Amino acid sequence: MSAAAVLEPALQSAKVPVVGLRDGAGRRRVLYALQPRQFQAYNLTPLAPRRPADPRPAGGYVKHIGYGGAAGGGKSYLARAVAVAAAFAWPGCTVIIFRRTKDEVKQNHVNKFREEVPEVLSDGRRLYSWNGQELCATFFNGSRIYFGYLRQEDDRYRYQGNEYDVMIFEEATHYAWESVRWLTGNRLRATRPYCKPFVLYPSNPGNIGHAWYKRLFIDRDYDPRLNENPEEYAFVQAFVEDNAELLRRDPTYVRQLDTLPEP
Fold first, then answer.
1. Residue 36 half-sphere exposure, CB side, CA atoms within 13 Å?
2. Residues of the domain holding 205
């Protein structure tokens, strides 16, 4: 199967294709295209090719990437785009997207992933196989995307013994520091020699993880005793105004947000 990640060179268009494939007739189909702010975060990952004036540290890459800070910034879509890009770019890799509960990960990610990425292409080729019990998509090249949940502190032990090249903690401030640190410290590791493990933390402010998220990505206050290297952390601020696609679909959304209490 000739499916491949499509990586565009610069933020020159409103939406930049980052994941695509070609059908049996050679026609290109874009699965995920990112808006400029989303693409800025994507460029911090090791999935993006290195370029002059690369924001990533010389000889390395940003291992922990924060994104968001405001409602409507396109966090969930970015999470799925990064997950599928990794699955295509790194054959045999393992990716996991977390939400707080099983229902949330189904509603916010599984259902949309299944709409955005066809299981079987129009020419009959199978792109991935879906396991509803394990909430896992196994791709044609051996890569897997899991959809997990972390409501209780003990939920982290569901993933004990597993290895993940990419972890995505969607709505990251919903999780306790102990769970995030344990998972990224124990379960994040390269499963293939060409994989470069990293973590994406799309989130809004608030909730139980607000303090650790603010410390790492806003205050940039790192603890050398925890081997926290400042060069491995970056944050991309995103506002609802950065999500032209959302505002095009629902022009009243900003006014709706303005009716909420300021915090």
1. 9
2. 33-258
